[in-house]
Amino acid sequence: MLYLDQRRPHAGNHIDVCLISHFELSEESYEDVLSFNNDMLGFKPNCSYCMDTMSVEEEFEFDFPRDMLAIQRYVDNLLNRIQANKLPAMTEKDFNYLSQA
């Protein structure tokens, strides 16, 4: 999922949520995603949000850990499709400090 937070002076924030999938979700799964979004964003003060879906042809795959910048290229391509700003410039080294839970 892609969350785009658009800060609006004096009127709060509006967050566009884009569900990206290479397969169609069942109605039940779609409702689960909406519920998750509401749990994450529903209580944020001065905030509105809406969700749209984007279909992609195939699941994202890349050469881990040799080409981590493939993530940036893929996300930038998706951002371009929804006419949003690209990610900031990154290097392979920027991925060295990611955490897993």
Secondary structure topology:
Elements: E1 2-8, E2 12-21, H1 27-41, E3 47-55, H2 69-81
Parallel strand pairs: 2-3
Antiparallel strand pairs: 1-2
Please characterize this protein's 3D structure:
With 101 residues, the protein is of the alpha+beta class. The chain is 28% helix and 26% strand. The chain contains two helices and three strands; from the N terminus they run ββαβα. The chain has helices at 27-41, 69-81, and strands spanning 2-8, 12-21, 47-55. A three-stranded mixed beta sheet has the order 1-2-3, covered by helices on one side. The two termini are 18 Å apart.
User: Roughly what is the average pLDDT, rounded to an integer?
Assistant: 83
Evaluate the radius of gyration. Answer: 16 Å
How many helix segments?
2
The major pleated sheet works out as: 3 strands, mixed
Structural class: alpha+beta
Count of strand segments: 3
Distance between the termini: 18 Å
Strand content: 25-35%
Widest sheet: strand order? 1-2-3
> Quick one: overall form?
globular
Indicate the percent of residues in helices: 25-40%
Low-confidence stretches: none
Order of helices and strands: EEHEH
Descriptive tags:
2 helices; 101 residues; alpha+beta; globular
What's the short story on this structure?
The chain is of the alpha+beta class and 101 residues long. It has helices at residues 27-41, 69-81; strands at 2-8, 12-21, 47-55.
